[in-house]
C-alpha cells in the first residue's frame, strides 16, 4: 500500500474525534475562546441538546475581517508564538474551530474593537465560503448547526437531548466558577437555564481574577477570594456557603486557595469537586486522590467531599499539552502538589473545629412543613390518639365524649406503666459495662470531678487523655441547691456544645447552649475521641515492629524496587523494614506489630502500585489507621450505656477539643445542632 497525504477535511475530522467528543465539548472550546478574548459577558444558546444549534456570543476583542479565514484554519492561533512551556491562555493549539467546522455547519461573525464594520465566514463540512460583511456589534458570534451531520456515525453515540444539555450546563458552570468577573448565561429548549451575574468586584480585583499568577495577600487577592465565593454560592447554593470553610496555603512556588465542605457536608458523587490549575478546569487524578486522602476517615463509605480548589504555579511546572481537550495536566512535582493539598485541607479542617452540617436541620424543617401542608397529623396528635386508645379503660372516669383530657394529665398523676419506675434523663445509679469478644465484664466507674478547677475526666474505656485541659467549669453536685445548679448549667451552656440536659434511648445526649439544642450520638462521638487518641499515641514515636523469623522475599520489577527504596526511610517509621535482595527482589525483615499476621506479598505490591501512581507510600499508614479505627470502635462507650451528668459533660468538653469530632471514624455525624430559630420553625412560630 502506497503512502499518501490525507486531505485537510479528513485530517480535521480525525482531530475532531479528540477535540469534539460531544456538544458540551463544542461549548467548552467556544467559551474558552471568548474568555481568552477578554469578554466579560458570554451568552450561550442551545437547541436539541446542542445537536441542532449552539450559539456563543461574547463582547470580547473580536477578530479582524482579514483574519477570519485564518481563524478557521488548522494550527492558526494568536495565543502562542514559540514558547510552548509558558502557556497562560485556555486555548493555544488552533484546532477547535477547524475541527468543529469539519463536522458541522459553522458561522463565525466578528467585529474587532477598532473596526467600523463586522464580517463573517461560513464553513460547512470543511468547505469555506468567502468572507463577507456582517452587521454585528463589537465582539464575536459563533453558530454551530447540525453537529456531526458530516459524520453520522458519531450521532449514534450521543445521549438524549436532556443528557447532552445537562453536560453543557456542567461545563458552563465549571468555567463560570473559574472566572467570577464574567457574566454567563445559558438558555435552550431543554429548560436548563443559567444566569450568573458577574460577582461584584473592584476594577483592580477584576484584573486580579483574570491573572491567576497574581501574588496573594493583598487587597486584590482578598477581593478575588470573595468573588470566587460569591460565584460558588450562585452555583452550589446557600448550603455550601453555610457548610464550607476557606483555604489558603503556599508551599515553595505553589499557591492553593479555595473553599472546601466540612466533613459532615458531603455528596453521593464527585461532580461537586472542582479543580483548577492556573484558571484552567481540570480533571486530574493527583488532585482527586489528594482530596480523598485529606478526607480519609471523615466521610461515610461511598460519599464524596464538596470542594473548589484553585492551584497557581509557574506554567513551566505544569504540562497542559497532554491531550487536545486540555482537561488533563501533568505536574513536574506531583508529590509536592499532593502533599500541599492534603496538608492544607487537614489544617483548615482542624482550625474550623467540629461543625454539624446545617442540612440536617433544614431537612427536618422541610419535612415538618410538608406534613403541615399535606394536612397530616402532627406527632403530638398521633401520640395523643394512641395514648387514649390504649389506656381508655384507665382514664374512662375522667374522659367524656367530645372532651379529652390533656396528655399531661397522666404525668401529673404519676400514671406510669405497671412494673416500671419513672423514667428520667440521667442515670441515677448506672451499672457501667463494656463488651469484649468473650464475655461482658464490669467497667471501672468514671472518675468524677473532685476539684472545681479540674479538667474533664476521662470516660471508661477511653485512651489516656492526650488533649489539653478544657476551660474551667464546675459540675453541679448532689447537695447543691437548685439555684446554684441552674447557675452552673447556664455557665456551661456557653460552651460550644453546651450543658448536658438528658440522655434518651440510652444513646443520645441532649445538650443545651444559649441559642440551640445539641443532640449527640454518644458511641460515635466517643469512638472518634478514642481513635484520635490512639493515632497520637501510635505516631508519637517510631511504631513497634515485629521481626520475621524468615525474611519474606518479594519479587518485583526493578522500577518498583527503586520506587519503594526511595520511600524506605518513611516506611521504617511505621515498622516496615526491607532491603534489596538482588536486582529483582526485596527482602522484608520487619512488619508493623499492630497489623499482626498480614499478607506481606500483597502489602508490598500495593505499596509499589501506589508509589508508581502517586509517588507516595501512604497506604501503610492507611492500614494502620484502619486497625486503630477498629480498636476505637470496640473500645468506646457502647450504645445502651446510661451515663451520669458528669460523664456526659466530660464527653462534650473533650469533643470541643478535638477538631475532627464532628464525624466518627466511619464518617457518620456525631452530633447535630438545632438552632432556636429552627425549633421555632418546627412549631410554626416563625
Report the total helices: 23
| Number of distinct beta strands | 27
What number is the mean pLDDT? Answer: 77
What percentage of amino acids are in beta strands?
A: 15-25%
Structure description:
The protein is of the alpha+beta class and 686 residues long. It folds into 4 domains: 187 residues, Histidine kinase-like ATPase, C-terminal domain (Heat Shock Protein 90), CATH 3.30.565.10; 144 residues, Ribosomal Protein S5, domain 2; 54 residues, no CATH class; 263 residues, 2-Layer Sandwich (formyl-coa transferase, domain 3), CATH 3.30.1540.20. The protein is built from 23 helices and 27 strands. The strands form 7 sheets. Strands 1, 2, 3, 4, 5, 6, 7, 8 and 9 form a 9-stranded mixed beta sheet that branches. A 5-stranded mixed beta sheet has the order 10-11-16-13-14, sandwiched between helices. A 4-stranded antiparallel beta sheet has the order 21-22-23-27. About 13% of the residues have low confidence.
Amino acid at each position: 500500500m502506497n503512502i499518501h497525504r490525507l486531505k485537510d477535511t479528513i485530517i480535521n475530522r480525525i482531530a475532531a474525534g479528540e477535540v469534539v467528543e460531544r456538544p458540551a465539548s463544542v461549548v467548552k472550546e467556544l467559551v474558552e475562546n471568548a474568555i481568552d478574548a477578554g469578554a466579560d459577558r458570554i451568552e450561550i444558546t442551545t437547541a436539541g441538546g446542542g445537536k441542532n444549534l449552539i450559539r456563543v456570543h461574547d463582547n470580547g476583542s473580536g477578530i479582524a475581517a482579514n483574519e477570519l479565514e485564518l481563524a478557521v484554519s488548522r494550527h492558526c492561533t494568536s495565543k502562542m508564538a514559540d514558547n510552548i512551556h509558558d502557556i497562560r491562555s485556555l486555548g493555544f493549539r488552533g484546532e477547535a474551530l477547524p475541527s468543529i467546522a469539519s463536522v458541522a455547519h459553522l458561522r463565525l461573525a466578528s467585529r474587532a474593537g477598532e473596526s467600523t464594520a463586522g464580517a463573517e465566514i461560513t464553513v460547512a463540512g470543511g468547505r469555506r465560503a468567502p468572507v463577507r460583511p456582517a452587521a454585528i456589534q463589537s465582539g464575536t458570534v459563533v453558530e454551530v448547526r447540525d453537529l456531526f451531520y458530516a459524520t453520522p456515525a458519531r450521532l449514534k453515540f450521543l445521549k438524549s437531548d436532556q443528557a447532552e444539555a445537562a453536560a453543557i450546563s456542567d461545563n458552563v458552570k465549571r468555567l463560570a466558577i473559574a472566572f467570577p468577573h464574567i457574566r454567563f448565561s445559558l438558555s435552550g429548549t431543554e429548560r436548563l437555564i443559567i444566569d450568573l451575574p458577574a460577582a461584584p468586584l473592584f476594577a483592580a480585583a477584576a484584573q486580579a481574577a483574570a491573572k491567576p499568577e497574581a501574588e496573594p495577600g493583598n487587597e486584590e487577592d482578598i477581593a478575588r477570594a470573595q468573588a470566587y465565593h460569591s460565584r460558588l454560592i450562585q452555583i452550589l447554593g446557600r448550603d455550601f456557603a453555610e457548610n464550607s470553610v476557606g483555604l489558603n496555603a503556599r508551599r515553595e512556588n505553589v499557591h492553593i486557595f479555595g473553599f472546601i465542605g466540612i466533613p459532615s457536608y458531603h455528596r453521593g458523587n464527585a461532580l461537586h469537586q472542582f479543580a483548577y490549575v492556573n484558571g484552567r478546569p481540570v480533571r486530574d487524578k493527583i488532585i482527586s486522590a489528594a482530596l480523598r486522602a485529606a478526607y480519609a476517615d471523615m466521610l461515610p463509605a461511598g460519599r464524596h467531599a464538596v470542594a473548589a480548589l484553585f492551584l497557581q504555579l509557574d506554567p513551566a511546572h505544569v504540562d497542559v499539552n497532554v491531550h487536545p481537550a486540555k482537561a488533563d495536566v501533568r505536574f513536574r512535582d506531583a508529590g509536592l502538589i499532593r502533599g500541599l493539598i492534603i496538608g492544607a485541607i487537614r489544617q483548615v479542617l482542624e482550625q474550623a473545629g467540629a461543625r454539624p452540617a446545617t442540612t440536617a436541620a433544614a431537612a427536618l424543617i422541610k419535612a415538618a412543613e410538608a406534613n403541615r401542608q399535606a394536612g397530616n397529623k402532627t406527632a403530638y396528635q398521633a401520640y395523643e390518639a394512641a395514648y387514649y386508645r390504649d389506656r381508655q379503660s384507665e382514664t374512662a372516669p375522667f374522659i367524656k365524649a367530645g372532651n379529652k383530657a390533656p396528655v399531661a394529665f397522666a404525668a401529673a398523676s404519676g400514671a406510669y406503666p405497671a412494673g416500671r419506675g419513672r423514667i428520667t434523663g440521667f442515670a441515677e445509679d448506672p451499672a457501667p459495662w463494656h463488651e469484649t469478644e468473650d464475655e461482658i465484664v464490669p467497667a471501672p466507674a468514671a472518675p468524677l470531678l473532685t476539684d472545681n478547677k479540674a479538667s474533664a475526666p476521662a470516660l471508661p474505656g477511653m485512651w489516656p487523655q492526650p488533649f489539653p485541659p478544657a476551660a474551667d467549669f464546675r459540675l453541679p453536685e448532689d447537695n447543691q441547691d437548685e439555684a446554684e445548679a441552674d447557675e452552673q448549667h447556664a455557665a456551661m451552656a456557653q460552651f460550644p456544645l453546651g450543658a448536658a440536659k438528658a440522655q434518651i434511648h440510652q444513646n443520645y445526649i441532649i445538650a443545651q447552649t444559649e441559642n440551640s439544642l445539641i443532640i449527640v450520638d454518644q458511641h460515635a462521638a466517643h469512638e472518634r475521641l478514642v481513635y484520635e487518641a490512639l493515632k497520637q499515641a501510635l505516631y508519637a514515636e517510631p511504631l513497634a515492629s515485629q521481626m520475621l523469623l524468615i525474611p519474606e522475599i518479594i519479587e518485583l520489577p526493578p522500577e518498583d524496587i527503586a520506587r519503594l527504596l526511595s520511600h524506605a526511610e518513611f516506611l521504617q517509621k511505621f515498622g516496615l523494614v526491607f532491603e534489596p535482595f538482588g536486582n529483582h527482589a526485596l527482602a522484608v525483615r520487619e512488619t508493623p506489630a499492630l497489623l499482626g499476621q498480614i499478607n506481606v506479598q500483597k502489602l508490598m505490591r500495593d505499596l509499589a502500585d501506589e508509589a508508581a501512581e502517586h509517588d507516595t507510600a501512604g497506604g501503610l499508614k492507611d492500614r494502620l489507621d484502619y486497625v486503630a479505627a477498629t480498636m476505637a470502635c470496640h473500645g468506646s462507650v457502647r450504645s445502651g450505656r446510661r451515663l451520669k451528668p458528669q460523664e456526659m459533660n466530660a464527653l462534650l468538653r473533650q469533643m470541643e477539643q478535638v477538631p475532627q469530632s464532628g464525624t466518627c471514624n466511619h464518617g457518620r455525624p456525631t452530633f447535630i445542632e438545632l438552632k432556636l430559630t429552627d425549633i421555632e420553625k418546627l412549631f410554626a412560630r416563625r
